[in-house]
Amino acid sequence: MAKQQQIFTYLLKKKIGKRLQVLINENQGKVAKGRSQYDALEIDGVVHVSSRYPLRVGEFVIVKNKQTDSYDLYGTVV
């Protein structure tokens, strides 16, 4: 399992600085959670999205990825 996590983390780090289209699944004001076209619901990690305006569930946004942890990406709406 540790090797799998290393590989996944490596692949996520390659996405830092890149833009992804993200579907918003959860809204928490100006911070939301969503998934990209590459992420399966309830299986893969999520994209944590920060925005200057409130996001709506079901909305698609373009996100620039800023950082990652073991399974999730963190980015900002562009």
TrEMBL record:
Location of the TRAM domain: 13-78
GO cellular component: cytosol
GO molecular function, one term: 4 iron, 4 sulfur cluster binding
UniProt-listed Pfam families: TRAM_2
Native species: Bartonella fuyuanensis
Protein name, per record: tRNA A37 methylthiotransferase MiaB
Keywords, in A-Z order: Transferase
PROSITE patterns, A to Z: TRAM
